[in-house]
Amino acid sequence: MSNLHTDLKIPQLNISLKQPLGLFINNEFCPSSDGKTIETVNPTTGEAITSFQAASEKDVDKAVKAARDAFENVWSKTSSEQRGIYLSNLLKLIEEEQDTLAALETLDSGKPFHSNAKGDLAQVMQLTRYFAGSTDKFDKGTTIPLTFNKFAYTLKVPFGVVAQIVPWNYPLAMACWKLQGALAAGNTVIIKPAENTSLSLLYFATLIKKAGFPPGVVNVLPGYGSLVGKALGTHMDIDKISFTGSTKVGGSVLEASGQSNLKDVTLECGGKSPALVFEDADLDKAIDWIAAGIFYNSGQNCTANSRVYVQSSIYDKFVEKFKETAKKEWGFGGKFDPFDKECVVGPVISSAQYDRIKEFIDLGKKEENLSMFQASEFPVKDTKGYFIPPTIFTDVPQTSKLLQEEIFGPVVVVSKFENYDDALKLANDTCYGLASAVFTKDVKKAHMFARDIKAGTVWINSSNDEDVTVPFGGFKMSGIGRELGQSGVDTYLQTKAVHVNLSADN
Ligand SMILES: NC(=O)C1=CN([C@@H]2O[C@H](COP(=O)(O)OP(=O)(O)OC[C@H]3O[C@@H](n4cnc5c(N)ncnc54)[C@H](O)[C@@H]3O)[C@@H](O)[C@H]2O)C=CC1
Ligand code: BAL
User: Fold this and answer.
1) What is the CATH code of the structural domain delimited by 49-269+482-495?
2) Is the ipTM of this complex over 0.85?
3) Is the peptide bond before 410 cis (omega within 30 degrees of 0)?
4) pLDDT score for 1
5) Homologous superfamily of the 274-468 domain (CATH)
6) How far is the CA of 152 from the centre of ligand 1 (A)?
7) Which of 6, 41, 287, 399 is the most core-located residue (most Cβ within 10 A)?
8) Is-above-0.95 flag for pTM?
9) Active site residues
10) Pocket of ligand 1, candidates 57, 164, 165, 168: which has the most ligand atoms within 8 Å of its Cβ, to mutate?
């Protein structure tokens, strides 16, 4: 092992790989300027996997310079067709390396390989295909007739240098939601992975180079949020920043823009998304969707349907069946190994998140005296990993901290409602507005809910099955702006208005 690469083995899948550990600037892996490193831990075992280079402020400046030079001299002059070709090359490489990338996600984040990690890669491939095909199709601007001798036209132009900060719950998927859209639009990028899940994006950087992207177009800067993230937010030569993570840090990114150069800001932040189940719903199907909507990815999902409201006439039946489903379908598997097909609930990301979630569980149980069900024993005895079983709190009052705050774990609160107005009021009673779901066979009621709920996404008779072709983003304190779909490119473009005077006299 050098300090810039190490050999990793994943025996469960018979995979060996050369893992980059350096900062990726100008298409080369390099050490950090101050030699600092970060150790990354396998949440399944609690043991260290390896250490990678942690960028300094000086490295941020170096990456920004690389991205600026690449934008001004090369990328802004690269045709949209050629950008699409690079993205198509990238797609082919991701397809070839999908198992390795998915395996890295499982190793570093603990997400079950066969369900979650492969699912993340399927989404990454779909969105790369989508954005590769979009480069010559997105909105290019309009012509506006003014007078006989005057007209104007608009140009949609890239911002230039874009910074992107991504979280650990979907390390590569969240990176690709941002990266491919920004590249399709013609920007150069500096992207910062989360401290605890940097390996997959560093490996992905090798594919960027192989795909032919010119040096400096994509730069990957692993490092601490409080240092690298902050330096990106306040940098005077970054034109736009896009962030996914907690609402608290999202606010500080917005503030950093205001205190520096007013760079454009897109934020995807927290959520406490409601799912409503009306008495006319297909109960079994609703329960399957809702269980997946909270227990998939161990509940570490900004759109998780973490608040469930059920009409009182079917409440008891719902609760009974929901518990059965959680116990039967959402288990760790006997080996506590997310590479094992039986494992559908992996560990949560870190000991810090484990402690945070456990605090919520203890609060609900001991201080708020709530009725609680867990799909298996907790704390789990047979593992050193950060495993938390699906946990269901029932009859939870609207004022409970568990109902109001984002827990970001496999923990759900269930409450009852009497009628539509009651349900809507409860569902909208939150500072968040990311997503929502409604289960009913009544088309009118479903669309009334879609009209009335203050959230960026509404699922009718499903939950959390987002699609890369559909815009995604939050109302209220869940964020600013949209990603994916056409918005995934538009968000990285700004409008220039050109006024043309044809008159000979003035
Ligand atoms: N919306 C989402 O998808 C996510 C929400 N969260 C929420 O946040 C809670 C805490 O998780 P954390 O890992 O602490 O989230 P976080 O918001 O601190 O981390 C997300 C990203 O922001 C970076 N960051 C941290 N401080 C920064 C700063 N001052 N300036 C710029 N970037 C910074 C981190 O390095 C990471 O890359 C979770 O329990 C969950 O509620 C966390 C991750 C993803
Ligand atoms: N469902 C992917 C978006 C997120 O959790 O951040």
Assistant:
1) 3.40.605.10
2) yes
3) no
4) 47
5) Aldehyde Dehydrogenase; Chain A, domain 2 (3.40.309.10)
6) 43
7) 287
8) yes
9) 268
10) 165
